[in-house]
Amino acid sequence: MSEQQLALGMDLGGSSIKYGAVGLDGKIEMEGSYALETRSVDEVSDLLGRIIENVRHRAGHRLIAAGLGSPGLLDRDRRIVRYSPNFPGWYNVPLADIVEAHLEDLPFAMENDANLLVYSETRWGAAVGRRNVIVLTLGTGVGGGVMVEGRALTGAGGGAAELGFTSVDPNGPDYKVNRGCLEALCNIEGVLRTTTEVYGSRPGSSYDRDGRHGTVPASPEALGRAAEQGDDLARAVWQRVGTSLGIALATFINVFNPEMILVGGGISGAGNHLLDPAREEAQRRSHVENFKDVTIRQAGLGARSGLLGAAALAFDAAGLSAPS
Hints:
Blueprint: E1 6-12, E2 16-23, E3 28-35, H1 41-59, E4 63-70, E5 73-74, E6 81-83, E7 91-93, H2 95-103, E8 108-112, H3 116-123, E9 133-138, E10 142-148, E11 151-152, H4 182-186, H5 188-199, E12 206-209, E13 212-215, H6 220-228, H7 232-256, E14 260-264, H8 272-285, H9 288-293, E15 295-298, H10 305-317
Parallel strand pairs: 1-4, 4-8, 9-14, 14-15
Antiparallel strand pairs: 1-2, 2-3, 5-6, 6-7, 9-10, 10-11, 12-13
């Protein structure tokens, strides 16, 4: 086994905690996950303790730092979870103190889970060497992170970069805090809603429209395959979803002037069926020079991007940069 130094990256999600011991080269040496049942503070604290004990036992002196991505709003010093909507009862939880009690004297850092994506992609993924980057993940929700001049944007109270709540259609579906926002239109639910509208039948049911017959794709993955196989209706769905995404991307381009926007999450598996209309719409709505500066492409690290981002954060806390 290599004697390289390792950072522990932990990604706290709604259904599980993923973790991995990662080298400076971004290679994951050991990894695993624990399912969450109650999402209580006590359960999460217990599981994080088990993860740290397990990795410390296996990695020994090679483990030099740890990082954690947590959903919700973090305080300005990134030590307290002020509020996490998918974790009942989580208000002002001192999560950093809880983790550090298990780490002893190892350097530790905590960040919003969506912000981790810019750390992982700029260190080991599709945006290596870039300092002004936006990463979106399209799935059950729409998360995002913004890096400006090499630093993640956090905001006055820790709530910056809630990109999923960006306004897209003021007459769109009523959703959480903002009607017609990006998340309402481009998450899984939004894609399936558009699928129903275009096919005229619910996902998974049979349809008969414009001389076409068949079964409505029942998931974004199935919809992507149908588009790849030449299904005009599937391509029409992605055209609409991509246009909505492009409206939001134009806002980000005009406000942040990024070098790169990366789109990840399960919905991004549609590839250019989604991204081509997004690019076209973003170009129509963006400042000409700002659009020339940006590259829009799929994210590169997939489902491990969160734990990798937490590991990158940990290396930063230990004062170690990626190898050149």
